[in-house]
Amino acid sequence: MNDAYYYNKIGNDLLSKKSYDEALLMYLKAISINSKEPMFYHNAGVCLMLKGESERAISLFEHAIKIGINLDETKYYLIKILFELERYEKVVNSSLPEKNFKIDAMILKAKAALRINKNEDVKKILNELEILGYTSQETELIQKMI
């Protein structure tokens, strides 16, 4: 099992050097040794996202969440990629990060809901943002579009 964390660390080092292909191989090696560690899936998903392999990244982020990762970054990256791929229904139904990236994720959810005519969802999200004390030109524009 410790070998898995060793490969994960090598992957992190390679990722920081933008050696995405090599980092991905290390994360996949870590997964092959310990398939129950959600962080390995998250890290591999980050590599794939940075390489532009969105479909594979989605799968890894979803799996990391399914097996219990509690990392706001994972949820945000998943929402961001789904939005970029215009999978608005999935964006609207995704769980939000708890702290970090929460506002950015809420704005993406509001935009997604607006695009699929779920105006009540948009209103709820905008209301939540207002309660959190967040306003911007973007949220004001979304409000006008409802």
Write the layout of secondary structure elements.
Blueprint: H1 2-16, H2 20-33, H3 38-51, H4 54-66, H5 72-84, H6 88-93, H7 102-115, H8 119-131, H9 137-145
Classification by helices and strands: mainly alpha
- List the total number of helices: 9
Distance, first to last CA: 52 Å
Order of helices and strands: HHHHHHHHH
The portion of residues assigned to helices is over 70%
- Radius of gyration equals 17 Å
- CATH-assigned homologous superfamily of the largest domain: Tetratricopeptide repeat domain
What are the low-pLDDT stretches, counting only 5+ consecutive residues below 50? none
What is the number of strand segments?
Answer: 0
Strand content: under 5%
Described by strand count, sense and barrel closure, the largest sheet is: none
Quickly name the level 1 CATH class of the largest domain. Mainly Alpha
User: What is the mean predicted local confidence, pLDDT?
Assistant: 96
Q: Write the CATH architecture name of the largest domain.
A: Alpha Horseshoe
Indicate how many domains the architecture comprises.
2
CATH topology call of the largest domain: Serine Threonine Protein Phosphatase 5, Tetratricopeptide repeat
Shape: elongated
